[in-house]
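Dear Dr. L.,

I hope this message finds you well. Following up on our conversation about the binding site, I have prepared a predicted three-dimensional model of the protein together with guanosine-5'-diphosphate. For your records, I am including the exact sequence and ligand specification that went into the calculation, followed by the structure tokens. Please feel free to forward this to your student if that is useful.
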Amino acid sequence: MPAIVVVGAQWGDEGKGRVVDWLAREVQLVARFNGGDNAGHTVVAQGHTLKLHLVPSGILHPDLVCLIGAGVVVNPERLVVEMDELAALGVDVGPSRLKISAAAHVILSTHRALDGAREVARGRGAIGTTKRGIGPAYADKAARVSLRAGDMANPEQFAERVAETVRGHNRSLQELYGAETLSPEQVAAEYCAYARRLEPHLADGSALVGEMLAAGETVLCEGAQGLLLDLDHGTYPYVTSSSTVAGGALTGLGFGPRYVSRVIGVTKAYTTRVGAGPFPTELLDEVGDRIREVGGEYGTTTGRPRRCGWLDLVILRYAARINGLDELALTKLDVLSGLERLKVALAYERDTARPESGRRERTEVFPAEFGLESLARWKPVYEELPGWAEDISEVRSRDDLPPAAREYVGRIEEWVGVPITLIGVGPEREQAIV
Ligand code: GDP
Ligand code: IMO
Ligand code: MG
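The resulting structure of the complex is given below.
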């Protein structure tokens, strides 16, 4: 049963790239199943620090194939830049190694312009998107008016359709948002060139995945973003526009659940979020600042400072349920070294409808479905755990961790009910306890 699914268990940037890179040594295909170049997946290995936005994080392993799956929205401009950067480092990104599902949808320059214009129009309610055109591209996909990667097989015809779509987008930009328009001819010419370049990479993605699974080969499904950014199960509307959960791997790549052998949720040893929206354990004090500085918590894609807070086990239990997690990968444990006391949220509490009763309502279930106002009323209930002072970045076995770090990891496993099978103690490939 050969499909392994890797998903983010929080708000993204959990370290999925490094976990995929680690697991990729044992697989034949690594396939991205959702999102677009809003993602930024970091792989630090073989002397390189790769910031991957569209190319799957297995690309450094020469013997496997990488697929950008049907569920992804592809910005061809960004993809070409990324391929050139990788090629300059000597990484093979030829058509036999890097494939694009013909059913993946294409992000146009006007999708990006619309993303920006809609954010401005939202004013104080802005989502804080990456402005990569993700929402508008998925909206066009759902409205059945989008261009797909397979359309690039005929570059001239593709260019004509690009121009036509850009004209439509221009009307929205101008009439709805009073924003600047783009030249349809110029965008079409640019996209014609991308089509010529990318055409050899087009593939029947689901057929490729299906053949490999049927042959007993292992397919590693790489998720982007994280559970709480999921369009259905995240903190709507402060979410992204795709399926970021394990189920998204099945729809985004096109195979059935019986092939899934392992579902791995990636979580940091604390919590971060980029962009707006609720964040119950957020730290707006010097502890939050310290985590941001020590952890280098600045966005891989936009460079924005990430909001930081304590680990939230209510969220991790929600991640275990929605994804059916078999395992957790816990990254950035090293960042917590030196903090005297650590807190983890075990539950949430709020006033009951009759606050004068003095009683509080308590839940251990993440209150995702009743919206932001409901979520805002819940406050985390913390448990304090002792910290550790030692540098753990050279530790390679769980038994060699300081007792307090062992306890921290053990309590997470116990409370979430999922074993931790990988612990990150530094960004490098080898800085892991497996
Ligand atoms: P992704 O989007 O989930 O792939 O995560 P990002 O690459 O956006 O952010 C994770 C950041 O943490 C990257 O800069 C990684 O190099 C870094 N990182 C990953 N694991 C560890 C770890 O165990 N310790 C430390 N210190 N950094 C890590
Ligand atoms: P990876 O794969 C963290 C956030 C944005 C914003 C919201 C919607 O690296 O974990 P979008 O541009 O998708 O419409 O923005 O989602 N966001 C991410 N946050 N990591 C990511 O990807 C993200 N991709 C989108 O900051 O709040
Ligand atoms: Mg990231």
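In brief: Residues 367 and 375 are 6 Å apart (CA to CA).

With kind regards,
A. P.
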